[in-house]
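=== RUN LOG ===
request id: a7f3
mode: sequence -> structure
chains: 1
length: 152
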Amino acid sequence: MPATRNDVDTVTALLATADALLTEGPDADGPLTPAGRARGAAYALRIALEAAVDATLTAEAAGLGAISMRAKLLCLRHYAGPALAHRVNALWNRLSEGCKYHHDEIGPRHAQVHAWRAAVGSLVVELTAPGAAVGFPQQRDDSALPTEASTC
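=== RESULT ===
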């Protein structure tokens, strides 16, 4: 289930937004502090990853459009395999934590968000690559399974 052109454009625009927020120097005009730019880039990266997951799951066609991202990440293991799904889930959790504002924390470091940017970029490529989605597994036919009486 390859991503559509619109999905790719959305993810590309979000990654470009994150890049712009990360590359603006300290002399940039505007109200954003370096910590604000890092947190904004983390938001853009998380949304880009979510869009790539949606494209992989073809969320609307599979009836997954109305469920939470956590539930979609659970479903992803059946569509893209457990190893890729685990990496996506771990990165999404880190990005979600980096997006949260706590009055007693500084927020994600600039270097950390750069590392997240590289990871999101590689995961998006893996998720949107043709053949990345393996399709939802078919349910087993329970009538073909041996019964307790026949196994003894």
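=== NOTES ===
Residues 5-134 form one domain.
Confidence is low (pLDDT under 50) at residues 138-146, 148-152.
=== END ===
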